[in-house]
Write a structure and sequence with these properties.
Elements: E1 6-11, E2 14-19, H1 29-43, E3 50-54, E4 59-61, H2 66-69, H3 74-93, E5 98-102, E6 105-107, H4 109-116, E7 119-123, E8 127-129, H5 143-151, H6 153-162, E9 165-167, H7 168-174, E10 179-181, H8 186-198, H9 202-215, H10 220-234, H11 239-248
Parallel strand pairs: 2-3, 3-5, 4-6, 5-7, 6-8, 7-10
Antiparallel strand pairs: 1-2, 8-9
Helix pairs in contact: 1-3, 3-4, 4-5, 5-6, 9-10
Amino acid sequence: MDFKHLIVSKADGIGWLKFNRPPMNALSTEVVFEIERAMDWFAVQDDVMVIVLHAEGRMFVAGADIAEMSSFTPMQARAFAQNGHRALGKIAAMEKPVIAAVNGFALGGGCEIALACDIRVLADTVKIGQPEVSLGLIPGFGGTQRLARLVGPGIAKELIYTGDAIDANEALRIGLANKVVPSDKLMETVTEMAKKIAAKGPTAVKLAKACVNLGQDTDLATGNSYEVEAFGICFSTKEPAIGTSAFLAKQKPDWKAAKE
């Protein structure tokens, strides 16, 4: 697919989305629409099992395009937020796991993109946060909601109210990051993780993600009922037979055989 501000590709079961709007990778309306289009494309690529969002240099995504945003009318601002919620919602709702490989600065919308992903691996050089109140704004792409669900309301309120950007180790301490690695090991670490996920039963991984996501917004009993049904659905595919047979034979499972 052709994009102006993203580089989108796939290889060996992994989909790659690279932010490519130097120097800040700022989120303009055009970039937001491209993110949405890229997620729609990844969703229908049967050979993509896991997706990685990444960038290069000092920036992951530095936030929204402030120059564009500065002249918004209230209705334009509302539309911008709606567009952002729709695009990031597609990241969060994607059946396939999505990993954020975060380098450099991930502020405002950049933090919100990371929050929409399933897993966040941060370089040790990262600064991450929601500084919108410094501009007289609030997070508009899901930050007030996803951050609180991930790290708890107290810590989320502190970060949002102060607008502070925290370093990678603090992000790890509060649960905002899954891993922190040296910056020169970031892509190696994420690629290894993505390959490990891509080697697992594809339907099982999708169902596991669905159960975790659905369970976050319901009570334990209802969440458990989702899990019971999804466990049964696994056996509507050939994957359990392939996986258990390979385990007993001490071999690697051939998941492609499930489609035959």
